[in-house]
User: Which sequence fits this backbone?
């Protein structure tokens, strides 16, 4: 399990540093944003109870989303708006009509935000 957690954090860090805007963030901010992933990678060397490792592994993806949002916030300030598309699919999709409705809802939300001058981040 430690190797799996280590791998998840290493991959998340790799994804983080490849996003657009990462190079526009100063080194001090990069270090602060990357710190949870560096710690996650370091957990490979520690003895940690399995429930805690599971919790750390579960938290990795949300930490990555938060880190990416922080980079965008630093670069674009208040212009950034996040659209979480999971809510559009929460009941599942069984028909093309449901798919079309969900996609249209996402499009309307993004269009509205763009119209107010926001940069939309889709999660």
Assistant:
């Amino acid at each position: 399990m430690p190797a799996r957690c280590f791998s998840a954090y290493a991959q998340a860090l790799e994804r983080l540093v490849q996003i657009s805007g990462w190079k526009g963030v100063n080194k001090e901010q990069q270090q602060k944003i990357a710190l949870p992933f560096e710690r996650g990678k370091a957990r490979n060397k520690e003895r940690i109870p399995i429930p805690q490792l599971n919790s750390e592994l579960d938290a990795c993806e949300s930490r990555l989303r938060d880190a990416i949002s922080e980079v965008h916030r630093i670069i674009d300030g208040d212009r950034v708006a996040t659209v979480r598309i999971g809510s559009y699919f929460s009941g599942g999709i069984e028909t093309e009509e449901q798919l079309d409705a969900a996609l249209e809802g996402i499009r309307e939300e993004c269009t509205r935000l763009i119209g107010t001058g926001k940069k939309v981040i889709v999660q």
Summary: The chain has four helices and two strands. Residues 2-77 form one domain. Helices lie at 2-17, 27-42, 50-76, 96-115. The mean pLDDT is 90.
